[in-house]
Design a protein that fits this description.
With 549 residues, the protein is an alpha+beta fold. Among the domains are: 91 residues, no CATH class; 104 residues, no CATH class. Helices cover 64% and strands 9% of the residues. The chain has 22 helices and 13 strands. A hairpin with a 2-residue loop joins β3 and β4. The protein is globular and about 85 Å long. The protein starts with 7 loop residues before the first helix and ends with a helix.
Length: 549
């Protein structure tokens, strides 16, 4: 590899030039097709996609560093990429330039105090794999086979240059389109890179996740053992595990591994790690997930790990409940707890406007027919939405925390992998029970939420109407005769109020019984209480509606 590529100026020129060439090629095709027609555009687009895919792949392979990680992420998104991009970018997972053994040996000695031949019984000079940040060599400690992961000597210099490029691009985009808040996004990326460059942090993460998953034996997950005495900020030594890339479905079939069962365990693994443990492997692209002949799932490369904080875990169900109750203010409060709204002066008002606009758009443009969702988008509605949502306001109001970025990235990768390995498997069959039990705090919280909502309805119902309060004040002042017409109105309100209280209490009693009865053992009683609760709820709303008249 040419060492001049390490220089920040060289990396900037190559990255910017490739971006410029790719953009101009599509602009040129768009302009020419205006004269030669849509048929010409469709005919040339596929070939242009192939050319640009090769341009991007070659630039990434030349630059290495953080750009390879970007390519690895994009390659798994097969559902949004044109076909011509998939194969070239997928090849990035297996093609990374290895560094010479002399450089590796110098790094090991500087980090651990001794050269490889004194630390290990055997050490293979040819690496098993080379990645964007480091490379892995096979070695032995006594009779135990180990994997030695060594960080590239100049990766910090490369990372600094790449982050500088990203920062400059962010600044340019923010200046041209007048977008505020872009600095926050850059800071989140910088934090993720800094964490991934610390191998000691990675070793600790492996130990924590290994302990968390130790009791989940039915998942058949392997987290390699860490040799703590051989770990440093730039070197990490772990148990050597053999297996095949989980994306190699032909080998899985050859081994007679049930792919649907494999993905069910894989999904449950991530549901447990994210929702129960709150600490998970956040880079599940196929190169980091192996499967052995026993069907065991082997997790590799813990450079990217993330937490689902208790604040975010608690705020997600609050957001869902607020959305169901159409409560914009509580939705915004929940988003603030998740760290998604900035602290600027008018952020709360802008967020409320955003939510109201989005909900209005959905109500007008999304139709539900026999449980099928039909999008009926109209150009005038799109223009109205864009006009009402000021992008500069939104970007200065909403900010995406690093943990949410990693969570979103993880979900995208595992769902894409599920579709690749077992297209017939429905991930929701595994995910939904975990969300219900661990995110919505089990069935008790659902019944508690219903009871709390009904309690609020009853409190509202038994509040004295404004007209009746005025009537009492006038009566105390001796003005009852003048306001005698309001007496009949308020008597009717009291009558309907009594009905509301009665029907609300009857609904609460039957709903509580239905929620707590065992449908398997007592199905008839369950359906009876459910029907009665629905009946009393209808009567409650009827009385409430009459009270409004």
């Amino acid at each position: 590899m040419n060492k001049s590529i390490y220089k920040p100026g060289v990396r900037k020129r190559k990255a910017y030039w490739t971006a410029f060439v790719v953009l101009c090629s599509y602009l040129k095709l768009g302009v020419v097709s205006k004269f030669l027609g849509q048929h010409y555009y469709e005919k040339k687009l596929a070939e242009l996609n192939r050319q640009n895919a090769e341009r991007i792949k070659n630039t990434i392979l030349e630059l290495q560093g953080l750009f390879v990680k970007f390519g690895q992420l994009v390659s798994i998104l097969s559902n949004i990429l044109p076909d011509e991009f998939r194969e070239p970018l997928a090849a990035l997972q297996d093609k990374n330039a290895a560094r010479p053994y002399q450089e590796v040996a110098q790094t090991i000695e500087s980090q651990l105090g001794k050269p490889p031949h004194e630390l290990f019984t055997t050490f293979e000079k040819k690496p098993l794999a080379a990645a964007s940040i480091g490379q892995v060599h096979r070695a032995t400690i006594g009779d135990e086979a180990v994997a030695v992961k060594i960080q590239h000597a100049n990766i910090q210099q490369i990372a600094d240059a790449d982050l500088d490029i990203i920062k400059n691009l962010v600044t340019i985009v923010g200046f041209i389109w007048h977008i505020k808040g872009m600095e926050h996004s850059y800071e989140q990326v910088r934090l993720m890179i800094e964490e991934e460059l610390d191998y000691e942090r990675e070793a600790k993460a492996m130990q924590v996740i290994q302990a968390n998953l130790a009791q989940q034996k039915h998942l058949k997950v392997v987290v390699p053992k860490v040799y703590k005495e051989f770990c440093s900020p730039k070197v990490i030594v772990t148990q050597f595990c053999t297996g095949e890339n989980i994306g190699h479905v032909d080998i899985l079939d050859k081994w007679n591994i049930d792919r649907s069962n494999l993905m069910e365990r894989f999904m449950e693994l991530y549901c447990h790690a994210i929702l129960v443990d709150g600490y998970y492997h956040a880079d599940p692209h196929p190169g980091n997930i192996l499967v052995n002949q026993k069907g065991e799932i082997i997790l590799l490369d813990f450079g990217a790990v993330a937490r689902l904080s208790s604040e975010m875990k608690g705020a997600i169900p609050q957001f869902i409940q607020a959305a169901l109750k159409n409560d914009n203010e509580k939705m915004v409060d929940a988003m603030q707890k998740m760290g998604m709204i900035s602290t600027q002066k008018n952020a709360h008002q802008i967020a409320e406007k955003f939510l109201a606009t989005i909900k209005d758009f959905i109500q007008n443009e999304v139709q539900f027919d026999n449980l099928n969702i039909d999008l009926n988008l109209r150009p005038e509605s799109i223009f109205k939405l864009v006009k009402e949502l000021d992008i500069s306001d939104l970007t200065s109001t909403f900010q995406i925390p690093k943990d949410w970025v990693l969570l979103n990235r993880t979900i995208v990768l595992i769902t894409g992998l599920s579709n690749q390995v077992a297209p017939e498997f429905n991930p929701l069959t595994t995910i939904a029970p975990y969300i219900k039990q661990h995110l919505l705090d089990q069935e008790d919280s659902l019944s508690k939420w219903i009871l709390d909502s009904l309690k609020n309805q009853v409190v509202t119902a038994i509040s004295l109407p404004n007209e009746f309060s005025t009537f009492l004040n006038l009566a105390n002042k001796g003005q009852l005769k003048l306001e005698i017409q309001d007496l009949n109105s308020n008597v009717r309100l009291l009558y309907t109020l009594g009905q509301q209280i009665l029907f609300a209490l009857l609904f609460l009693a039957n709903a509580y019984a239905a929620l707590n009865i065992n449908i398997v053992i007592y199905p008839k009683w369950y359906y009876l209480f459910t029907i009665l609760s629905a009946l009393f709820l209808l009567l409650f709303f009827k009385a409430w509606w009459q009270g409004r008249k």
